[in-house]
């Protein structure tokens, strides 16, 4: 037995971080998988769920509510350029293949089903793919490259975002202990975009309606989040994602007003108005290829 089995070491690390006091990014072995579309369904009026399956999703790793995969698309001339396996990582061709990132909404090890909820208001390539995806179609998926593992030991959790962050927030609320407390703020176009959330009882859930304003143009989320009343002496974890410009003021607020250290918050621009394939690389150093 000269070869040590490292396969599950990341799982041990995940369990340690989860039981500890500070959040940490943990990498998992990254694969490129050839999956197939099982079905598609609307989730509210804003999200289109693409359920993937087939032999290619077997053994998928899902450990963190905001982990993401890249769906890889053929180039305009029809060629598909896929990354090559390189140990536990991937070697990416240059220039990078056309891809879009999606939160892993759900992975079921029993059925191999993998749900990706695509925000239709973002428009463009990903939304077009989701709208036209037919059962049986082949889909190439890379990742997740790892995930942010957040301990379940904080006193309260602050979760906030727009429609693009809703799949991650929904998963957060499902996966936190039922005794967890906190706030969830979700900015949506209107009541149609609301979805059922399985939140712990100690969570206040606030839906913020834009009432006709375009996505990424309001300060609704910022104003609502700044209104929370944090009990003295409690440890808070903040997770905020959405349109880069509209969440920017919250970065400062979380640091200066809430006084949260680096390990106690994660704030990520998931998209940017007017930018087709935005990548908030500052916050995802583990994604650099």
TrEMBL record:
Pfam families: FAD_binding_9, SIP
Domain FAD-binding FR-type, first and last residues per copy: 30-151
Cited SUPFAM superfamilies: Riboflavin synthase domain-like
Molecular functions (GO terms): oxidoreductase activity
Record-linked InterPro entries: FAD-bd_FR_type (IPR017927), FNR_nucleotide-bd (IPR039261), Riboflavin_synthase-like_b-brl (IPR017938), SIP_FAD-bd (IPR013113), SIP_fam (IPR039374), SIP_rossman_dom (IPR007037)
PANTHER family for the chain: FERRIC REDUCTASE, NADPH-DEPENDENT, NADPH-DEPENDENT FERRIC-CHELATE REDUCTASE
Protein name, as recorded: Iron-chelator utilization protein
Organism, as annotated: Actinokineospora spheciospongiae
